[in-house]
């Protein structure tokens, strides 16, 4: 209101001295522009004040601890398929938003790999197709670092009949050439990555004797096979809202 009275006073002053019309119009336009500028500043200040409490509230939220989840799997194991489809994938989709789950997947299981002429020869528990699928998973994990991208694809591959069916149904979900991934899975690189996963699996203490083998913060959790979300929530402090949903 004060600004409006000032503008009116200026206009009356101009008319009092009988300024010509072509002088008055530019002055009035300039006054109008100045008034709009002041109004926009006031509006921006008001908007920033409205947003500031939300920023403060976000900063005050406790981050909490991060839980390390490691899952040792093999591609055609029925128990692994049951766990991946019913526990790992839905739990990850629900709890990954907390940014407090550090996930590692190691596809090898009870396979065996032997050095052979600058390459590797591998044998898997459920036969050669499983080795190829394990290699496919390892190639994806090598090329894709974001679990939000690779977890659904690993779940899709898990339990597939062979490399061909997995390639047709699962690889289109990735932003990497399917030919490149399959070339890795079918070749020396895939066998090398599978052997590397085998070295890590063979160094587990206690040794792996069941697949899937699940570690939470470095300790084997057999209960997580039946209820992964509950076991992760028990390890999180403070408990996130995603855990409270199941209580």
TrEMBL record:
InterPro entries: Interferon-induced_GILT. Coiled coil: none annotated. It comes from the Eukaryota. The chain crosses the membrane at residues 21-39. It holds the Pfam family GILT. GO terms for molecular function: oxidoreductase activity, acting on a sulfur group of donors, disulfide as acceptor. Keywords: Glycoprotein, Membrane, Transmembrane, Transmembrane helix. The keyword Magnesium does not apply. The keyword Glycoprotein applies. Belongs to the GILT family. This is Gamma interferon inducible lysosomal thiol reductase. It comes from Onchocerca flexuosa.
């Amino acid at each position: 209101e004060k600004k409006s009275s000032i503008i009116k006073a200026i206009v009356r002053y101009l008319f009092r001295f009988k300024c010509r019309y072509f002088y008055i119009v530019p002055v009035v336009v300039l006054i109008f522009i100045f008034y709009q500028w002041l109004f926009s500043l006031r509006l921006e200040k008001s908007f920033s004040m409205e947003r500031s409490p939300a920023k403060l509230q976000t900063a005050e939220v406790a981050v909490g601890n991060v839980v390390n989840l490691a899952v040792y799997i093999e591609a055609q194991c029925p128990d692994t398929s049951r766990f991946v489809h019913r526990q790992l994938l839905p739990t990850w989709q629900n709890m990954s938003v907390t940014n407090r789950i550090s996930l590692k997947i190691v596809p090898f299981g009870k396979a065996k790999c032997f050095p052979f002429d600058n390459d590797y020869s591998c044998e898997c528990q459920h036969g050669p197709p499983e080795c190829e699928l394990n290699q496919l998973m390892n190639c994806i994990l090598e090329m894709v670092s974001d679990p939000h991208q690779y977890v659904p694809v690993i779940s899709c591959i898990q339990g597939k009949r062979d490399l061909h069916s997995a390639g047709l149904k699962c690889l289109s979900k990735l932003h990497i050439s399917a030919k490149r991934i399959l070339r890795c899975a079918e070749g020396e690189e895939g066998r090398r990555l599978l052997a590397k996963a085998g070295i890590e699996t063979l160094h587990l203490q206690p040794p792996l004797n069941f697949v899937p083998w699940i570690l939470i913060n470095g300790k084997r959790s057999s209960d997580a096979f039946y209820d992964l979300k509950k076991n992760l929530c028990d390890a999180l402090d403070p408990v996130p809202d995603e855990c409270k949903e199941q209580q």
